[in-house]
Structures are given as C-alpha cells and as structure tokens.
Design a protein that fits this description.
This protein has 129 residues and is an all-alpha fold. The protein is built from 4 helices and no strands. Helices cover 39% and strands 0% of the residues.
Length: 129
C-alpha cells in the first residue's frame, strides 16, 4: 500500500467526516462519553471517539482485512498489524509513526491534519530524492 496516498486519504476523511469532539489522540477508539478504550470490531459508527489512526478503518480503501485482526473467531483489530499494512513506510511505533500518531500529541483537528499532511509530504520528498 502507498503510505503517502493513505495518509492523505486519512487526512481528507478526518477533515470531512470527523468532528473535533470525536478526535482523541489518547486512544485508538474510546467510549461515547470519552471513557475507556473500546476495541474496534466493526465499521458501525457507534458514537465512539478515536485517534487519527483509529478513524482509518472507516476510510474507503483503508478498511481492515482478515490479517488485521487478532484471530478469526475474535474480530478485534490488532492496531499494529493494521497500521503496518496501511502505512508500511511508517512502521509501528517508529519515530516517523510517533511524529503523527503518538498519544501525547495534540488532538486539535487542525494539528492532526497538519501532521498527517506534513508526514505525507515528507515521505513523498524522501522517495523523490
């Protein structure tokens, strides 16, 4: 998969479909009231919040596949596997990945979008040289 293209798809989706109050960098998915972490099991939009990566499964072309789940019987998304598949140039919890998705980063929507697009541009320029 193309990391640059996928970062841009994710940024565009968040910009168009995710209200500020549902963007929360501290958890891939969290409860409707901002409570504890919620495992991602389906594409039903059930009022949860999520970090930038946590919204990825809702993006056309970034949907989870069988290998992204912990097991066949328990359809709980393994975020590391998912991230490495849709954003292969970033790895998972690498320096590049943390510059965009670290839970300590701002959840301010404009900042999230800026990080996603900046990393896409940075990777594109790195690939061009």
């Amino acid at each position: 998969m193309n990391t640059v293209e996928n970062l841009r798809k994710l940024a565009n989706y968040i910009e168009q479909h995710v209200p500020q109050e549902r963007l929360y960098m501290r958890s891939y998915r969290s409860g409707p009231e901002g409570g504890g972490a919620v495992e991602f099991k389906s594409l039903n939009d059930c009022g949860t919040s999520g970090c930038a990566l946590g919204w990825g499964p809702f993006v056309e072309g970034l949907e989870p596949v069988e290998g992204d789940y912990y097991s066949h019987s328990n359809k709980v998304l393994a975020w590391g596997s998912y991230s490495e598949r849709v954003l292969p140039q970033l790895g998972f919890f690498t320096e590049d990945w943390c510059e965009v998705f670290d839970p300590e980063l701002s959840s301010e929507k404009s900042e999230v979008l800026k990080r996603l697009r900046s990393k896409a541009n940075q990777l594109e320029n790195r690939d061009a040289s």
